[in-house]
Write a structure and sequence with these properties.
383 residues; alpha/beta; 7-stranded mixed β-sheet; globular
Length: 383
């Protein structure tokens, strides 16, 4: 029986563990540095059909429908003019049991975790050393506990410690010169929006998204991306981003970018710097990267979670079939989505009135162009 060690109990790590636990030829264990899994209660996540198709293979379609929401369209708005530009019908990519879905991130994580037996996840395991040869991989943790495995799957996020260890600290994420603002807002404060859809607001150096967290009468998720410079001593000062003065300073910058009714009623606000991957790294000797540890995208294409799931599925098939094409195939998809994410953020954050005028014209044309949508979204949404 082959031993699989997964470092990090995030979405990709939990998903691939669910796949391996059903295979009698593998023994899978997740090693998580924290004493529990962080759920980030209340914050939302978007899952396109490429990931829903894969999640359904482990029973996601049995999750209570009230805990999920299936938006019909994405409504595009221009912040400055306070008007709707156009809408994109994302339901065209749906099938009967596979639909674009929004929900609380905590609900997805709970679903993935609850399907695993308690002995699969080992908490309070902070990795300190990774040694490998052609036959086995030796892991050392903070309590000097040693684990030998046949395959190591690294899924410990954008600030992957494992990735730093195996690359001699040569591969690190880059600050994207932007701040993410998360929060929740009561749906009663969104009377002007179509609550069946995702609402995407475009502005100068800023965009934000609103969408339902479930089919129940609950709050909407708010996520905004603000172009924002940080001083060198601020970037790694994570306590700064949760301090009230910093949050209030960010809210002040949003005064002319978000309607006052939204700002005044935004709850559970959390700010954090956006870090993205700059370089790709290929490990050797049966060591693999998935999720944000493989590559972290700019947050402007809503593919982070879906690509974590899709990448984990591809890696699972690569290992059980003993093929060697995971890295090359994943890189192709990653490069395509990264380029589109950067293009989206550029287009979302335009400031020149003339350029914005032509962007809006192009948007109106593109969302109705089926050939373009099939190429731009279909290649991603159809896994």
């Amino acid at each position: 029986m082959k031993k699989i060690a997964i470092v990090g109990a995030g979405i990709s790590g939990l998903y691939i563990a669910n796949l391996f636990k059903e295979n009698p030829n593998y023994q899978v264990t997740i090693y998580e540095k924290n004493n529990s899994i962080k759920l980030d209660n209340g914050y939302g996540i978007q899952l396109s059909t490429n990931s829903i198709q894969l999640l359904n293979k482990i029973g996601f379609n049995t999750l209570n429908e009230e805990e999920k929401f299936n938006p019909e369209k994405i409504d595009f708005y221009e912040i400055k003019q306070e008007k709707k530009i156009c809408d994109l019908n994302i339901s065209e990519f749906n099938s009967e049991n596979c639909k674009y879905t929004t929900l609380k991130r905590s609900k997805l994580v709970e679903f993935l975790r609850e399907r695993l037996s308690d002995n699969i996840i080992k908490y309070d395991h902070n990795i300190t050393k990774i040694e490998s040869n052609n036959k086995e991989i030796n892991l050392t943790f903070n309590d000097d506990d040693n684990v030998i495995c046949d395959h190591l799957i690294i899924s410990d996020g954008v600030f992957s410690k494992c990735k730093s260890l195996i690359s001699n600290n040569k591969i690190n994420p880059t600050f994207n010169n932007s701040i993410a603002i998360r929060g929740n807002i009561p749906r009663d404060n969104l009377n002007d929006l179509n609550k069946k859809n995702i609402s995407l607001f475009l502005g100068s150096g800023f965009h934000y998204v609103l969408y339902p967290l479930s089919s129940k009468n609950e709050d909407f998720n708010f996520i905004g991306i603000l172009k924002h410079q940080l001083k060198a001593n601020e970037i790694n000062n994570y306590e700064l981003f949760s301090e009230k003065p910093f949050i209030e300073s960010i809210k002040e910058k949003l005064q002319n970018k978000v309607s006052q009714s939204i700002l005044d009623n935004l709850n559970n606000i959390k700010c954090f710097p956006v870090f993205v991957s700059k370089d790709l790294y290929r490990p050797t000797n049966n060591i693999f990267l998935v999720g944000d540890a493989f590559f972290a995208f700019p947050p402007s294409f809503a593919q982070g979670a879906s690509q974590s799931i899709e990448g984990a599925s591809e890696l699972f098939n690569n290992i059980i079939n003993n093929t060697n094409d995971f890295y090359h195939e994943r890189v192709k998809k990653v490069k395509m989505i990264n380029n589109r994410s950067k293009l989206n953020q550029f287009a979302f954050h335009l400031s020149s009135p003339t350029v914005i005028f032509f962007r809006n014209i192009f948007l109106k044309l593109l969302v109705k162009n089926k050939k373009f949508l099939k190429s731009y979204l279909g290649r991603i949404y159809k896994s």
